[in-house]
Design brief:
By secondary structure, the chain is mainly α. It has nine helices and no strands. It has helices spanning about 5-10, 15-25, 25-35, 40-55, 65-85, 125-140, 140-155, 160-165, 170-195.
């Protein structure tokens, strides 16, 4: 049975169909929640609240995106509400995380403070590097952290992320790029402090 048929049955009150839809997505929702919030108890609460919201609002699901994408949007709203309640607000503006050079300048060989490295999501298998990257990602302002995780942890396409965060595709692309630049800059600082510049091939 495909997703469209499962959604149709769930809207008609078929609990088994709804359970199937949930089971196909709940691990991904939990994975996102734990990355966004940082502790298992709150992540489990977010998953539970997300599923309850989904049950209560299944009739409002317009099927313009996948059921999983719809659950992501609910989960993010629950996480945002939790952070607001806990008064965990971003203390630094994004400019403090971004490189001082423009995006165009990043490709010039004259920049002395950048080294070559792979995109963070390609290096996650290395445990030590993973811990460093996780810490840097966790330090990002919320709106950059969420799009980075959706793009590189959950591997969602830009169009789906745009629907989840209710932004245009162009705006979403820009936000993902700025998140990557922010992480790149922070990792550059971390690695230079830890290993020194001699270990890296500079641009």
């Amino acid at each position: 049975m495909n997703e469209r048929e499962l959604v149709k049955r769930a809207k008609a009150g078929d609990y088994d169909a709804f359970t199937t839809l949930v089971n196909d997505n709940k691990n991904k929702i939990y994975s996102l929640a734990i990355k966004m919030i940082g502790n298992t108890e709150d992540a489990e609460d977010i998953v539970q609240e997300t599923l309850l919201k989904a049950i209560d609002n299944i009739d409002r699901f317009r099927e313009e995106s996948s059921f999983g994408t719809w659950l992501y949007s609910i989960a993010l709203n629950q996480a945002r509400a939790l952070l607001t309640k806990q008064k965990q607000t971003d203390l630094k503006p994004i400019e403090e995380y971004l490189p001082t050079k423009s995006a165009e300048d990043l490709h010039k060989k004259s920049i002395p403070n950048l080294f070559e490295w792979k995109d963070p999501h390609k290096e996650l298998e290395d445990e030590e590097l993973k811990k460093i990257i996780d810490k840097v990602i966790d330090s990002l302002p919320w709106k950059y952290k969420e799009v980075f995780l959706l793009r590189y942890l959950e591997e969602l396409p830009i169009k789906e992320i745009a629907k989840i965060i209710n932004e245009s595709v162009a705006s979403t692309k820009s936000r993902v790029l700025r998140a990557k630049l922010a992480i790149r800059e922070q990792l550059s600082k971390v690695f230079k402090e830890r290993y020194g510049e001699k270990m890296f091939r500079l641009h």
